[in-house]
Design goal:
With 570 residues, the chain is an alpha/beta fold. It is 58% helix and 18% strand. The chain has 21 helices and 15 strands. It has a 6-stranded antiparallel β-sheet with strand order 2-1-4-5-6-7, with helices on one face. It has a 6-stranded mixed β-sheet with strand order 8-12-13-3-14-15. A hairpin with a 2-residue loop joins strand 14 and strand 15.
Length: 570
């Protein structure tokens, strides 16, 4: 069922007042911001072998810089080069034809960052000359530079992007909700899987319990088969063993002529000589030792000779044990070590299956508790979004109205979802209206290309200018006339606290810039080269004239002077 939300009951005046106070607070800190930003703006860009650029050394300045040129001159190559430093995809297709690699190096004061891409697609990133990962390069560049691409305005049309405008500026509520939702969905998925496999699990549990019980009762021991087999062989051949022992005993001690009495006679024969000769005495000692050994062996042989019949119970025990181990090897492994490994696996699988059985009985309550926690986190997230939505919309609307849409309306509206989703209990959508008397509609449905560009510019300047340098790649698409002048004024204001680089086709924006760069192509040796140069004031007038009327006629130059004079007078 849809989850109902309480509306934001604060009056619009209070929301606007709160936003205005926050903006005034930021403006009061602007000298400190400018000082901090000035230390880390882009000061130089060096590009080698990128697309139609063979070699480019571009000194960049603080403030508002505009890049203009004929259609197809390659204005966006500058943005592509900076994008490589941010970690954007760097394929071999970006490398100038016939070259082995490309190299882009950016400088922020004394610090430098570079990226080399080879025709094999390999990238090498460096910070101050030291090799780093591409992620580290992107993180460093992301602290200095933000790029708003041509497609940024279109991305604003998605509900997810509009939601992120709010969530990116909240505290821990989005992360708290996401964590609760993941835990709930994980438990729900596990419970569903346990229910789906209940029959298979019961069958597997019976099999595992039987196998574990059989192996536990048998209690096989590593290496026990070899001594058991030796014992069986001994018991099966006791008669031969007894007969052999009796024969040996006869020769050693029990026969009429045997070794033991003869050794005794030999010892006595040496008595006289041992008294006078040390060697004889030593040999007599050795004979006595031999006699003692023979007598000891004879004692052992007597026991074997008398034990001619095996103990039936012991024989049965050994045979039964070997038979049991053989059955285990047949069922669970070719060797006893395999049987023991199988037993360990069975015990582990049985523990997991028993845990599944336990979870299936208790997980229902856990899922319900996690769902309740998710809904609670969703309520907190919804309230946080509503608290942020009013002030944010008021701040954006102030800038949008300054951008040539004095009657515009903009607000966030919240639409409950049928069930909790990955990002909350509702959708956050921007509703917009540029014309008085018209009903506000979803931004994706009612905004023209030019209106969308100005909304994106407002978002970029109010919410997105968090780095020292900000790049806009033709964000002025679809804008003209008085609206273009308003966009130029807004970019100029942003440049008071940020370094602003704008790729544009509008003369109104280029005229307002502090620095004007021209991107142009020329032929050299049958190859196309893209060059970028900083224009003088006279060259600026010629370029503005071209942008206004396609030529540098007297009338066009007068128009360019008038435009420059208008923006210079602010």
């Amino acid at each position: 069922m849809p989850v109902k939300r309480q509306p934001d009951v604060r009056p619009p005046e209070a929301q606007v007042k709160e936003t205005t106070q926050a903006q005034e607070s930021q403006e009061s800190q602007s000298p400190l911001v400018v000082a901090a930003v000035a230390e880390s703006v882009l000061t130089r860009l060096e590009v080698r072998r990128l697309a139609t650029i063979e070699s480019l050394d571009l000194d960049l300045r603080p403030g508002f810089s505009a890049f203009t040129g004929e259609t197809g001159a390659g204005k966006s190559i500058i943005v592509d080069a900076l994008g490589l430093l941010l970690g954007q995809r760097g394929g071999a297709d970006l490398i100038r034809t016939g070259e082995a690699d490309l190299l882009v190096t950016g400088f922020c004061g004394e610090a430098s960052a570079s990226r080399r891409v080879t025709v094999q697609g390999r990238s090498t990133a460096r910070l101050d000359g030291e090799v780093v990962s591409l992620r580290e390069l992107g993180e460093w560049a992301g602290q200095h530079l933000t790029i708003h691409w041509q497609h940024s305005a279109q991305s604003l049309l998605s509900a997810g992007h509009q939601r992120l405008l709010l969530d990116d500026r909240l505290g821990g509520e989005p992360a708290g909700y996401a964590r609760a939702y993941r835990q709930w969905q994980g438990a729900s998925s596990r419970l569903e899987e346990l229910r789906r496999t209940e029959r298979e699990r019961a069958q597997r549990l019976d099999l595992l319990e039987f196998q574990a019980r059989e192996l536990s009762e048998a209690a096989p021991v590593a290496g026990e088969e070899e001594p058991l087999q030796a014992e069986l062989n001994r018991l099966a051949n006791l008669d031969s063993i007894s007969q052999g022992a009796a024969g040996a005993l006869e020769l050693l001690s029990d026969g009429e002529v045997s070794a033991s009495p003869l050794l005794q006679e030999a010892v006595r024969a040496l008595n006289a000589g041992a008294r006078y000769d040390e060697t004889t005495a030593q040999l007599q000692m050795e004979l006595r030792a031999a006699l003692e050994a023979v007598q000891a062996v004879a004692g052992e042989l007597r026991g074997l000779a008398e034990d001619s019949a095996p103990d039936p119970e012991e024989l049965d025990r050994v045979q039964a044990r070997l038979s049991l181990l053989g059955k285990l090897r047949t069922k669970y492994g070719p060797g006893l070590d395999d049987v023991l490994a199988f037993q360990a696996q069975v015990e582990a699988d049985l523990a997991v299956t028993m845990q599944d059985v336990h979870d299936a009985g208790t997980l229902t309550g856990e899922v319900q508790a996690l769902e309740t926690e998710t809904l609670r986190a969703g309520e907190l997230l919804g309230r946080a979004r509503r608290a942020a939505a009013g002030p944010m919309a008021a701040g954006l609307l102030r800038v949008i109205r300054e951008l040539g849409m004095p009657h515009a309306q903009l607000e966030f509206r919240f639409r409950p979802l049928e069930s909790a989703g990955p990002h909350g209990l509702e959708e956050a959508l921007i509703f917009f209206n540029a014309n008085p008397g018209e009903e506000a509609g979803q931004l994706a449905d009612v905004a023209s290309g030019g209106e969308l560009s100005r909304v994106m510019l407002a978002i970029s300047t109010v919410l997105g200018a968090t780095t020292p340098a900000v790049v806009f790649d033709e964000v002025d698409a679809g804008v003209g006339g008085a609206a273009a002048l308003a966009v130029a004024a807004q970019l100029s204001r942003l440049a008071q606290s940020r370094q602003v680089l704008v790729v544009t086709h509008l003369a109104q924006l280029a005229a307002r810039a502090d620095h004007h760069y021209k991107v142009e192509k020329r032929l050299s040796g049958g190859r196309t080269l893209t060059e970028v140069r900083l224009l003088t004031e006279h060259e600026r007038l010629e370029e503005l004239a071209r942008m206004l009327s396609g030529n540098a006629s007297g009338a066009a130059l007068d128009h360019a002077r008038e435009l420059r004079g208008t923006v210079a007078g602010r």
